[in-house]
Design brief:
By secondary structure, the chain is α/β, with parallel strands linked by helices. It is 33% helix and 26% strand. The longest helix has 18 residues. The structure holds adenosine-5'-diphosphate. Adenosine-5'-diphosphate (ADP) binds next to α1.
Length: 232
């Protein structure tokens, strides 16, 4: 079953730059997909259009039954509920503990305290940080902070976990740890994972599907790929 069906999508920014050209791609439920390409190839644009941070200029994106491009602004929350998003810079709230960072969104939507506790502890367990619930972000390493951000992203069991350069600020060892955590979430919960990266070592080791963007075009789609670099 498909989770995402992208048909003939173009993204043109107001300054006239065409960031995505005629993109068509399908992503199945439970897939783990890397999106790679050089700087300016369109990775961020691709990721942002999935969570409706930007709208395509033409074409169609169907995600979990929602027509993303056509969705009214007042209905975007329906899409966001299906997604977890992880950024390069963690974006944790510094004055909240690990537990509170992960529980925050559930508190906002009025989830019952007992259910919040179950979900938060389960998410922290999945990222291997159950012992750090009372700690503040600045007492954690970069890799641990990113794991908290991942726990926050998966706490409400999203269908899709979107990661935009999640290892961009981390050393190779911590980067590998993060990707292993993502792989284990993908395997144990069936959550679909899409990760934009230019970390060659990670892509080469993981042997997952690889979409290669170049100048806004999808130029390769490998089922079980290595890092693909047209320049060498
Ligand atoms: P990547 O994430 O692979 O570095 P981007 O998606 O950020 O690539 O950028 C793709 C192209 O779109 C680049 O030419 C970039 O300069 C341009 N671009 C990105 N964001 C904007 C924006 N907000 N306005 C205008 N052009 C943009």
């Amino acid at each position: 079953m498909e989770l995402i069906n992208i048909k003939d999508v173009n993204v043109r920014y107001r300054n006239g730059v065409n960031a995505i050209h005629n993109l068509s791609v399908k992503i199945k439920k439970g897939d783990f997909v890397f999106v790679i390409g050089g700087s300016g190839s369109g990775k961020s644009t691709f990721i942002k259009m999935l969570y409706r941070e930007i709208k395509p200029s033409s074409g169609e994106i169907i995600l979990g039954g929602l027509n993303v491009a056509k969705l009214r602004n007042s209905k975007v929350y329906k899409l966001r509920r299906k997604l977890g998003i992880v950024f390069q810079d963690y974006r944790l709230l510094p004055k909240l503990t690990v537990y509170e960072n992960v529980s925050f969104a559930l508190e906002c939507i009025g989830t019952e305290r007992k259910e919040i506790r179950q979900k938060v502890l389960k998410a922290l367990e999945l990222v291997g940080l159950k012992s750090k619930t009372r700690v503040y972000p600045d007492q954690l390493s970069g890799g641990e902070q990113q794991r908290v951000a991942i726990a926050r992203a998966i706490v409400n069991s999203p269908k899709l976990l979107i990661c935009d350069e999640p290892t961009g600020n981390l050393d190779p060892e911590m980067s590998m740890e993060i990707v292993k955590v993502l792989e284990s979430i993908n395997k144990t919960t069936g959550t679909t994972v899409i990760m934009a990266t230019h970390d060659k070592e990670i892509v080469n080791k993981m042997n997952k599907r690889v979409l290669v963007l170049k100048d806004g075009y999808l130029v390769k789609d490998f089922e079980k790929g290595k890092y693909y670099d047209e320049d060498n």
